[in-house]
Design brief:
With 207 residues, the chain is mostly helical. The protein is 44% helix and 0% strand. The chain has helices at residues 19-25, 41-44, 87-96, 104-125, 134-137, 140-145, 166-193, 197-206. Helix 3 packs antiparallel against helix 4. The radius of gyration is 28 Å and the shape is elongated.
Amino acid sequence: MTEIATPYIANKRTPMRSAEDLRAQIPGWGADLDPADRPSYPREQPGIETGAHWDFPERQPEKWPRERSVEHAFLPPVFGTSTPPAGASGAIRRHAYKYSEGRAAHWLLLLAADRVDAWEHHVKSFGTLHPDNPISETGVAAEFGRGGFSSRFGQKRTDVNHQWMDPIIVAGPWVMAAVGLAAAYKTLRKERTQPDNGSAWTAKARE
């Protein structure tokens, strides 16, 4: 590695590349180019000491291919390893990183992967002695016993606008799963109670 990315060194020795060059190489680059869109802008002005006392930290080993945004040349020196991607949700997450962070597809796929990951763990829990309890773990009981409804009025909460969607997003899949299981049980029960027409014709022929 002949060139080290400037965010990981104490003094930014690498000359800055032009905006046109970066925009041509990185899809979506410059989405936050306006300083008004960057809360961190005051800290990015020249002359502010970073306080870094190292040149380049020792890099954490990459034990499996990790997700990396197309905006970055390589992974940062330190990254998380507690929840490696797995299953269908992992495949969705890996596909999300093929898109720039400036595109909605990147974030929508990550949101979808979170929902899939939650249901993967729900299904796994049913194979244990302590399956997930949607009543207690989704906070439904707290809505009636902890002032859930009263806390939404007159408090100037910013999340009130989307709260009508929360029951659909959280409880909807559970309701659909329950309806599906009920329909499957009804079908199996109907097949068991329905007489075997072949056996009836055989018995009648013998008579």
